[in-house]
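Below sits the subject:
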Amino acid sequence: MRHFLLTWLGTAIAFVITSNIVPGFIIETFFAALVAAIVLGLVNAIIRPILGFFALPITLLTFGLFTFVINGLTLWLTSVLSPVPGFEIKTALAALLGSIVLSIVSTVINYILRVVE
């Protein structure tokens, strides 16, 4: 349970950091980041495998680069499905860049939290 809470907190912090780096990626409150982290986890658990399955041919043709597009789509879908105002992604480019930055930042933060734990 502790690992789950630390991962959730780390992802929420990564959302806040990403909103400061990527223009068009807006997180207004930390509460919105916490909710967005939960919604992203649900989207990644339920919808992303379906997208990955149907996009497998194009992913193979692009040598895996289409995975970046899938990540951007799941992040954009997270902003659409988020029930709390204060999380918005304005453009597709912001979703794509945000997914890349969010992946890097959350990996670093979660690594640091696991080392400290």
